[in-house]
From TrEMBL:
Domain of life, source organism: Bacteria
Organism for this UniProt entry: Paramaledivibacter caminithermalis (strain DSM 15212 / CIP 107654 / DViRD3) (Clostridium caminithermale)
Protein name per the record: Thioredoxin
Gene3D superfamilies recorded: Glutaredoxin (3.40.30.10)
InterPro entries to which the protein is assigned, alphabetical: Thioredoxin-like_sf
Length: 155
């Protein structure tokens, strides 16, 4: 293979990887707090509390763990992100990955969890237009049940 063809092949591969990463980052409509503090969980939570729109808050985990736990959370997070995408125009969403929180964010997380009756991971909290908690779903969820609740809140 010539150097020119090899260079073009590398550029195409990089472009494809870039498109896939950009799609994943921007299509999920989720907020994750990082150690660099690029997003403020507290600010996003306060926004959700004040906006006149139903909301869904997902407390989950993405990180290193045993294979069976990783498989469970990968499946759970995939289903949760599909819900967020489907209802992005009707619901505000906050996706909290507890596996990458800074010390400050951990304190804020505890406050948010307490305000929403979250006791374990993973958990989905569905809130109505007034910010009242309608449903707290701990552990695995049935997609149809969650969709039925969310559909009932859409005006």
């Amino acid at each position: 293979m010539s150097k020119k063809k090899f260079g073009i092949l590398i550029l195409v591969i990089l472009a494809v990887v870039g498109v896939i990463l950009a799609k994943e980052l921007f299509a999920k409509s989720n907020i994750e707090s990082t150690n660099e503090g690029s997003f403020s969980i507290e600010q996003e939570y306060e926004k959700i509390k004040k906006i006149n729109k139903p909301s869904i808050i997902i407390f989950t985990y993405e990180g290193d763990c045993c294979e069976s736990t990783k498989k469970f959370f990968d499946n759970y997070n995939s289903m949760a992100n599909k819900l967020i995408s489907k209802y992005k125009d009707s619901f505000e969403s906050l996706y909290i990955n507890t596996g990458i929180l800074s010390k400050d964010d951990q304190e804020i997380l505890m406050k948010i969890a307490n305000e929403n009756s979250v006791k374990k991971l993973p958990t989905i909290v569905i809130r109505n237009y007034e910010g009242k908690v309608i449903k707290v779903i701990e552990g695995p969820f049935i997609e149809k049940e969650v969709k039925d609740i969310m559909d009932g809140l859409v005006k």
